[in-house]
Amino acid sequence: MLLRKFLGFVLTTLLTGLILNLFFAIMDGYDKLFAALGVLLVGAAPFILLIGLPVSILSDYLTKNLNGKQRYKKAFLIHIIFGLIIGLVLSFFFEHLFLVVITLTAAIVFWILDEILRKKFKGTK
Questions:
Q1: How many structural domains comprise the chain?
Q2: What residues form the membrane-spanning segments (predicted)?
Q3: Domain range holding 62?
């Protein structure tokens, strides 16, 4: 499970950085995409590691006895609730409400990747 979670963390960090980078490029017309990507990855990685990874592990623990759509829904809800709470707390400290969008994006990406990796890892055992 830890290998799957760590792989989910790495992929979530990369995809969140790419999604946000493309968003900023489209909205601001920023032409130096890969220069900003490094900054976004360095900024997002600690938060995803220290907050997203434990939330994902907690989600697995809380939904371990559930199956199918019920587990998907509850895991999604756990990721979204914690993403929203963390986004609101961070936006309070950094005074920018856009952080809620960023944390929700990362939470959704982490949930999607975790579900994909769960199926892939389940098939290899």
A1: 1
A2: 7-27, 33-55, 76-94, 100-117
A3: 2-124
* Radius of gyration, CA atoms only, the chain: 15
d(CA 94, CA 111) in angstroms, rounded, equals 25
Kindly list the distances between the CA atom of residue 52 and the CA atoms of 12, 30, 103, 121, in Å, as whole numbers in the listed order.
9, 28, 9, 20
Cα separation, 121 vs 115, whole angstroms: 10
Render the burial of 58-70: b for 16+ CB within 10 Å, e for the rest. Answer: ebbeebeeeeeee
Cα dihedral 38→40→44→45 (10° resolution): -10
Q: How far is CA 67 from CA 62, 83, 101, in A?
A: 12, 23, 29
**How much is the pLDDT for 35?**
63
**pTM, entire model:** 0.85
Instruction: State which amino acid sits at residue 125.
Output: K
- Nearest of 123, 118, 92, 122 to residue 8 by alpha carbon: 118
